[in-house]
Design goal:
Keywords: Aminoacyl-tRNA synthetase, ATP-binding, Cytoplasm, Ligase, Metal-binding, Nucleotide-binding, Protein biosynthesis, RNA-binding, tRNA-binding, Zinc. Belongs to the class-II aminoacyl-tRNA synthetase family. By secondary structure, the protein is an alpha+beta fold. The protein has 25 helices and 37 strands. Strands 1, 2, 5, 6, 7, 8, 9, 10 and 11 form a nine-stranded mixed beta sheet that branches. Strands 14, 15, 17, 18, 20, 21, 22, 23 and 24 form a nine-stranded antiparallel beta sheet that branches. The protein is globular, with a radius of gyration of 33 Å. 40% of the residues are buried.
């Protein structure tokens, strides 16, 4: 059975049993501050389990793209070494929100597996929760009794809290679960060892394929459990593992989920992947297999993350994506001998394979390919740089063990993987101090953990059952009551309080727009609201203190100055998006944005730099829309298909409901939940202040509107006045500046000529100062030249004599610099290293530096140390 059929049969089965089929949410979560990525099927439904929203249907089924590479659920280091862990995977799920419970969930699971998919019953085992005295939760007798009607009792296993009690996190909805495991071993192995003894013991052919979670409880901050007001079902079945079972394989990578990607890697590298069914493979082949598994797994995770709008970067979710891709590149580099970008070539295969069910990977194929190609090229350059740095570290090492702290520096600063370092060191007869490395790694983890540590108390509910209302499209001030509060303590922000109101004019951060600030005012006090965010469908108002009387009535007042400036920038973003598509082409798509009171930032897909002329055209286009005084046309709650039919743009990577809000300014039509001006005339003026690259095929524009433009032109005017005054108020400023540039160019040529003559003169003068030491032509001097000229002089002097060792120092702008030239024959015959010389003698000038074994340079801070550095240089050749 093909994987596409496996997916279809699952969805068709639950559709026939009254479930609404919904699309996968994006793999990247933009509006959930508690998660970077969708790491489970239930993540997009959290608000329903928490009672903060109402689902479209009490029964839902889907297949969800998931990513598990950070936090509590982190499978990254297992990927490649076994045959069933993945970074990105599909989670097939069926959900009940206060509707059916254990009986229906268990019976449907059994019916689908044994009657539809026809998995032999004798290959299946199930587990039920044995109970927990600690939590005062009893043995799940109900689940046991249901399973007894479907399967032999000796195939039912009691599971402990670790295996059979599922929790969303340290706090939140949770409950006992019932897992279904499949035994895929050959009959001969089954006869020797029962599958029951291998369940939950990490056997690659006895694996969990389905988990039925029965949400009954809410875990509170103190660890205690309370009953949820309604019972829910949350199930998840690993699509890749299910395909393995149905296709008669013993490895996920032998299924058609992965074989097309593996075949492409084989074609590119000329190496062969060996099926898991082949026994007694060589160590070399095993390394090849692991590398190929890493690459075909990781390209899926990276490609879908980019398609959903998350570009690789050095922070947050972008760093996680970059780390996954770099792990794949490194495995190819080390074990498949790939020294050129190649992973990007797998995107086409992935798009053809999964594009029908996940159209985003097909429509974003070119962008994803470009971004991965550039990331590959960049990291391969980093690997080359790391190899050189490692050479330097080895050169400085006494003995055969390299410092673990140095290896960690290569890993942390330059992204050079420790296992690649170990491999290269082993080839050179070296090792590194792993204990020191782990100490440094733990220090970094402790710092990172401390910086992000957050303690969240339970909600104190003041008005139960209240559903808050957002009124901020119409009001900036409103009478409110507080419905719930909780305290949050973080290392980063200290103690803050999150306040939920019964109805609020405060816009929560989302869609690129920052959250509103303002105040809560009662008869006796004023509480400052420093930010507004949304979490699990609740609008959270952040404050540094709580009101003395939380049950009082308040006036919620948005800071209208900030709100007005932000709305101008947001509306200008829409106009600029239209301008870019009109001027550059309809291939332009929004890939990210930031809208705050000070400026707007807009990332978009485009294959080349936006020229100065095109920048002017975009500005003129937007300003024409502003001058046209276009009225805002707002469609607040219309069906999404109606909005799309009207020409509204939907953004990839965004999660839209059945009903949406559509914003129109003339020809600009977008789905948007943000705050906008009532008329484009309010924007006043639009000015682009920068344009540049973010990644391959992604450009970024920053722009300003309103008062910021006024201040921009005022600053320009003041700067021009200062320039004019500096130039003695010439009538023609441009002519005066051009004349100044001409004079400067002439003087620069004269200086260069004089320096050449001075270097030539010094070269002749210093040639006689060489002395022979131990068969080496040695020279160490301080000269009165710039750093660049001193460097040139050192090279020139070194070429005068064979077996030369030249060490020069000079001072530029009050700071010392040193340079060492060593003839290449000396580097070989006497194992001399200019890089090591600079490292050692640089200590005397409080400096550092580096370079090649035959030439290196350094800079320092202490000019008084030059004399001692010069006197110590001779010790290298004695």
């Amino acid at each position: 059975m093909k994987s596409q059929d496996v997916r279809k049969q699952f969805l068709d089965f639950f559709k026939s049993n009254g479930h609404l089929i919904v699309p996968s949410a994006p793999i990247v979560l933009k509006d959930d501050p508690t998660l970077m990525f969708n790491n489970s099927g239930m993540a997009q439904f959290k608000e329903f389990f928490l009672g903060n929203g109402t689902p479209k249907s009490p029964r839902i089924a889907d297949t969800q793209k998931c990513l598990r590479v950070s936090g509590k659920h982190n499978d990254l280091e297992d990927v490649g070494f076994d045959t069933y862990h993945h970074t990105m995977f599909e989670m097939l799920g069926n959900w009940s929100f206060g509707d059916y419970f254990k009986k229906e969930a268990i019976n449907w699971a059994w019916q689908l597996l044994t009657e539809v998919y026809k998995i032999p019953k004798e290959n299946l085992y199930v587990s039920v929760f044995e109970g927990s005295k600690e939590d005062n939760v009893p043995f799940d007798q109900e689940a046991w009794d249901i399973w007894k009607t479907l399967i032999d009792e000796d195939r039912i296993i009691l599971g402990n809290k670790k295996d059979n009690f599922w929790e969303m996190g340290d706090q939140g909805p949770c409950g006992p679960c019932s897992e279904i495991h499949v035994d895929l071993r050959p009959e001969a192995e089954k006869a020797l060892v029962t599958g029951k003894s291998l369940v939950n013991n990490d056997h690659p052919q006895v694996v969990e394929i389905w988990n039925n979670v029965f949400m009954e409880f809410n875990r509170k901050a103190d660890g205690s459990l309370e009953k949820l007001p309604a019972q829910h079902v949350d199930t998840g079945m690993g699509f890749e593992r299910l395909c393995m079972a149905l296709q008669g394989k013993t490895s996920n990578y032998d299924t058609d989920v992965f074989t097309p990607l593996i075949e492409k890697v084989e074609q590119i590298t000329g190496l062969k992947y060996t099926s898991d069914e082949v026994k007694n493979i060589s160590e070399e082949q095993n390394k090849t297999n692991i590398a190929i598994r890493v690459i075909v797994d990781h390209v899926r995770a990276v490609a879908f993350a980019i398609a959903d709008g998350q570009l690789p970067s050095n922070t947050g979710a972008g760093y996680v994506i970059r780390r996954i891709l770099r792990r794949a590149i490194r495995y190819g580099f080390t074990f498949l001998n790939t020294k050129e970008p190649f992973i990007n070539k797998l995107v086409e295969v992935l798009a053809n394979q999964m594009g029908e069910f996940f159209p985003e990977i097909k429509s974003q194929q070119q962008l994803v390919t470009n971004v991965i190609r550039e990331e590959e090229a960049s990291f391969l350059r980093t690997l080359d740089q790391g190899l050189q740095l490692l050479e330097n570290v080895v050169a400085e090492t006494t003995g055969k063990e390299v410092s673990g702290a140095k290896v960690f520096e290569l890993y942390d600063t330059f992204g050079f993987p420790k296992d690649l370092t170990a491999l290269i060191l082993k080839e050179k007869g070296f090792s590194y101090n792993e204990t020191e490395f782990e100490v440094e790694l733990q220090k970094q983890k402790t710092r990172s953990r401390a910086a992000s540590e957050v303690s969240t108390e339970d909600w104190n509910v003041l008005i139960p059952g209240n559903v808050e209302t957002f009124v901020g499209y119409d009001k900036t001030e409103n009478e409110v009551k507080i419905t719930r509060i909780r305290k949050v303590d973080s290392k980063k922000d200290g103690i803050l309080y999150q306040i939920v109101l019964d109805n609020t004019p405060f816009y929560p951060e989302g869609g690129g727009q920052v959250g509103d600030k303002g105040t809560l005012v009662s008869a006796n006090e004023t509480i400052e609201i420093i930010d507004t965010k949304k979490e699990n469908n609740l609008i959270l108002h952040f404050a540094k203190q709580l009101p003395e009387n939380v049950e009082a009535g308040f006036a919620a007042k948005v800071n209208t100055d900030l709100r007005t400036s932000t709305s101008k920038n947001h509306s200008a973003t829409h106009l600029m998006h239209l301008a870019l598509r009109s001027i550059l082409g309809t291939h332009v798509e929004q890939k990210g944005s930031l809208v705050n009171p000070n400026y707007l930032r807009f990332d978009f897909s485009h294959f080349s730099k936006v020229s100065d002329e095109e920048i002017k055209q975009v500005e003129a286009f937007v300003n024409a829309q502003i001058e046209a005084q276009l009225q805002l046309v707002e469609h607040r709650n219309i069906p999404i298909q109606e909005a799309l039919d009207k020409g509204a743009m939907a953004l990839f990577g965004e999660k839209y409901g059945d009903n949406v809000r559509m914003i129109e300014f003339g020809e600009s039509k977008e789905l948007c939940g943000g705050i906008h001006v009532k008329n484009t005339a309010e924007i006043w003026h639009f000015k682009i202040i920068s344009e540049g690259a973010v990644a391959a095929g992604i450009r970024r524009i920053e722009a300003i509107t309103g008062d910021a433009v006024k201040n921009f032109y005022l600053n320009q005017e003041n700067t021009l006045a200062e320039i004019k005054e500096t130039l003695k108020n010439p009538q023609d400023i441009l002519k005066s500046v051009a004349s100044l540039q001409d004079d400067n160019a002439k003087l620069k040529k004269q200086v260069e000529q004089l320096l050449k003559e001075k270097v030539g003169s010094l070269k002749t003068e210093l040639e006689k100062d060489f002395q022979e030491v131990n068969g080496v032509n040695f020279l160490a001097k301080q000269v009165d030249l710039s750093m660049a000229s001193t460097k040139d002089l050192a090279s020139a002097l070194g070429s005068l004599k064979p077996d030369s060792f030249v060490f020069l120092a000079s001072v530029e702008d009050g700071l010392p610099n040193i340079h060492c030239y060593i003839s290449k024959e000396l580097v070989v015959s006497k194992s001399l290293n200019a890089n090591a010389v600079i490292k050692e003698l640089g200590k005397y000038i409080d400096g550092n530096g580096g370079g090649q074994p035959f030439f290196a340079s350094g800079k320092g801070k202490n000019t008084n140390g030059i004399a001692e550095a010069l006197s110590k240089a001779i010790e290298f050749v004695k």
